[in-house]
Specification:
With 405 residues, the protein is α/β, with parallel strands linked by helices. It has 3 domains: 2-124, 2Fe-2S iron-sulphur cluster binding domain, sarcosine oxidase, alpha subunit, N-terminal domain (Ubiquitin-like (UB roll), Roll), CATH 3.10.20.440; 139-247 and 349-401, FAD/NAD(P)-binding domain (3-Layer(bba) Sandwich), CATH 3.50.50.60; 261-346, FAD/NAD(P)-binding domain (3-Layer(bba) Sandwich). Helix content is 23%, strand content 28%. The protein has 9 helices and 25 strands. Strands 8, 9, 10, 11, 12, 13 and 25 form a 7-stranded mixed sheet that branches. It has a 5-stranded mixed sheet with strand order 2-1-7-5-6, covered by helices on one side. A 4-stranded parallel sheet has the order 15-21-16-17. Helix 4 packs parallel to helix 5 (190-205), helix 4 runs parallel beside helix 9 and helix 6 packs parallel to helix 7. The mean pLDDT is 91.
């Protein structure tokens, strides 16, 4: 089947995420950043970054990594003139190499000129035009359960099994389209197998699993509002278990926002599920313990991997203008350059603590993220969001589902 990307046909496979279709077709620049019009591409493939926002069939600002491809679907890349590949507004970035405070920029102008300047800025910046039509009216439903578990990763599925075994009506909601969480993105075969086993045990105990449902907010500690495929869901429960996992994080180096920079979990996930590589010759960067298995997986999948990771790597930089074209680094005091067409980032994620914070759960700063240290009231936390690793992830889910603090 074919998509129409800015009017040009692009071959795709029906049902795969549009962002995967674009990557497979070599369409590297999916969007432009709001302020400086820098090129953007998908990083997380989980709907948690802004790199793949596009206008789809007349509706702006949709995460194309969450939109299944359909024959004839119209994809328009936003926030660029005349096109995302050759955006003349990129000159903003060249003129303001040291940044720009848009709150104070040209604030000294007389009010009539300042008003005109603001109107012009709003036309050249932003996230696209309004939708072409209103679309179907969203539905609204109320769902009651004894226990609602947010997240269908290993901690969430273990919590669901424990809660259902105690006789509680248990519902698991997850934003993805397949239960398993990060187990599906592990580079070894044991991860997906463990996901299947945990899912079967949770369902066998009587838990209901609902995918494609993203929780938006915790309201007064009593209700959650979620967005499903067709509308909003009002979730109500006697107890809550938050197993929200982590957000993929980039590493800090010049050029880390270039299209072609992809999180390691995403690179494994799209290769395993859709047979699409992050790049034909990707560089894998990050902690050696995390990066080495990713590099081995991608090599087995057919990529010519550039191993640019290690404790001895210093001054890492991405090369390229519109997308990744190589890496430069210093090793043993010597400069090295390597050609590559993608950078796969093997870095620890930041705990997805936002819902727990709305529930009043205490947090503390560890590294580059806030870890939830305990539950609060009727809410329990489990898994990576609470700082657990390895076998402790499942154990924490079982404890939280069984009602332990």
């Amino acid at each position: 089947m074919r998509l129409l990307v800015d009017g040009s046909p692009v071959e795709a496979r029906e049902g795969e995420p549009v962002a995967v279709s674009l990557l497979a077709a070599g369409c590297e620049v999916v969007a432009r950043s709001v302020k400086f019009h820098r090129p953007r591409g998908p990083f997380c493939f989980a709907g948690r970054c802004e790199g793949c926002l596009a206008r789809v069939d007349g509706t702006p600002n949709l995460a194309t990594c969450r939109i299944p491809a359909k024959d004839g679907m119209r994809i328009e890349r936003q926030n660029a003139f005349p096109s995302a590949d050759a955006d003349l507004l990129r000159t903003v970035d060249w003129f303001f190499r040291h940044g720009m405070d848009h709150h104070e920029f040209l604030a000294w102008l007389p009010e009539p000129l300042h008003t005109a300047m603001r109107a012009t800025a709003r036309r050249v910046s932003g996230l696209g035009l309004l939708p072409e039509n209103e679309g179907p009216k969203p539905t609204f439903e109320t769902v009651d359960a004894d226990v609602v578990v947010v997240g269908a990763g290993p901690a969430g599925l273990a919590a669901a099994e424990a809660a259902a075994q105690s006789g509680a009506r248990t519902l698991v909601v997850d934003e993805g389209d397949e239960p398993g969480g990060h187990l599906l993105q592990r580079p070894d075969d044991a991860g997906p197998a463990e996901a299947v086993a945990l899912l079967e045990r949770a369902r066998g105990a009587g838990a209901t699993i609902r995918t494609g449902t993203r929780v938006l907010a915790f309201h007064d500690g009593e209700r959650m509002i979620a967005a499903g495929d067709t509308g909003l869901v009002d979730l109500r429960a006697k107890r809550w278990v938050l197993a929200t996992g982590t957000h993929p994080q980039p590493l800090l180096y010049p050029g880390n926002d270039l299209p072609g920079t992809i999180s390691a979990r995403a690179a494994v996930g799209i290769a395993r599920r859709f047979g699409v590589l992050a790049g034909r010759s990707p560089a894998v960067v990050g902690e050696p313990a995390l990066a080495a298995p990713i590099a081995d997986f991608l090599t087995r999948a057919g990529a010519a991997v550039v191993r640019a990771f290690g404790d001895d790597v210093e001054d890492l930089r991405a090369r390229g203008q519109k997308s990744v074209r190589g890496v430069a680094l210093r090793r043993a005091g010597r400069r090295e350059t390597h050609d590559c067409d993608a950078i796969v980032v093997a870095a620890r994620g930041a705990p997805a603590f936002e819902l727990a914070g709305q529930a009043g759960c205490p947090t503390e700063m560890r590294g580059f993220g806030f870890v939830v240290t305990s539950g609060a009231g009727k809410t329990r936390v489990a898994g990576e969001v609470a700082g657990h690793e390895g076998a402790a992830i499942v154990a924490s889910g079982t404890a939280a589902g069984g009602g332990a603090p």
